[in-house]
Specification:
This protein is α+β, with helices and mostly antiparallel strands. The chain folds into 3 domains: 100 residues, Nucleoside Triphosphate Pyrophosphohydrolase; 31 residues, no CATH class; 123 residues, Nucleoside Triphosphate Pyrophosphohydrolase. The protein is built from 4 helices and 17 strands.
Length: 276
């Protein structure tokens, strides 16, 4: 999965330190990321020394020996270098190794959080950077705002030797996946599993067991993966507002369409290889 970057270590301990020469700078705008084109025609993340002047940079985390800083959205930057350009964020997953994908995905999570909380949600005043921890602070009403992490469940529904795969009704992602959804207020993860399955395909399940988890910073979510056994009828009743397709697959029929950085891929492969 995308967070599996061993032997490198992801260190998200908060630091209040100025950037140095080779520190990465994450800058995004309109779902694009600023990259530098090298002499070999490839892209890399820009570093601090490649900018003439950058203010208000915020430390994010460290991966291996690489430290990442962000220029919060709203801070204007004038790009004059011919080798700098904004590229669609999806390019990150096409050109970079997995550990840099994880770095950019996590940086986007925090970058978007800073962008979305420049004003206090309680009183509307401007927030400021808190220097003692990773948080924003409202000087007027004293509200402290921490990074948002939204819980999501994903479920592999099993009917003996078959696995249920679905496709979304909307959006650009058209491949087969597993049933997933946000956890609602007051729900346990297990209740969310049952609710999402019943809402989307009209099925009931039992024997819910945990598989693993995955942070996905691009959408500020933390995904908890489960498998569950079908209880009762396997007749699928699709919610066409959410899904376009729902189909049972035997192990030898399962499509292999997904990137191995996703928990969905890991769960489908676990079922295929009799590991659940």
């Amino acid at each position: 999965m995308i967070q599996d970057i061993e032997p490198l270590i992801f260190d998200n301990n908060f630091l209040d330190e100025a950037p140095t020469f080779n520190d990465w700078i994450f800058i995004s705008s309109d779902e694009k990321i600023l990259l530098k084109e090298t002499s070999a025609g490839r892209y890399k993340l820009p570093i601090y020394s490649e900018f003439e002047k950058l203010n208000n940079l915020i430390y994010l985390f460290k991966i291996g020996s690489h430290r990442m800083y962000v220029l919060p959205t709203g801070n204007k930057i004038h790009i004059t270098r011919y080798d700098f350009s904004y590229q669609p964020f999806r390019v990150v997953f096409q050109i970079f190794p997995q550990w840099i994908q994880f770095a950019c995905n996590t940086a986007k999570h925090l970058s978007n959080w800073y962008r979305d909380n420049c004003y206090c949600g309680r009183c509307g005043s401007s927030t400021v950077f808190k220097h003692s921890e990773r948080a924003l602070y409202c000087p007027k009403c004293k509200n402290v705002i921490y990074p948002t992490i939204s819980p999501v469940i994903i479920v592999g529904v099993i009917d003996k030797d078959k696995l249920l795969l679905t496709k979304y009704a909307h959006g650009d992602f058209k491949k087969y996946g597993l049933i997933a959804g946000y956890v609602e207020i007051g729900e346990t993860l297990e209740v969310a599993v049952k609710r999402e399955i019943y809402e989307e395909v009209g099925l009931k399940v039992e024997n819910i067991r945990y598989f693993g988890s995955q942070p996905w910073g691009e959408n500020h979510i933390l995904i908890s993966g489960f498998f569950a056994d079908l209880k009762g009828s396997n007749h699928i009743q699709l919610d066409y507002e959410e899904l376009s397709t729902g189909k049972w697959f035997y192990k030898h029929e399962l499509p292999k369409e997904l990137s191995d950085t996703s928990i969905t891929y890991e769960m489908i492969e676990a079922f295929r290889n009799n590991k659940v």
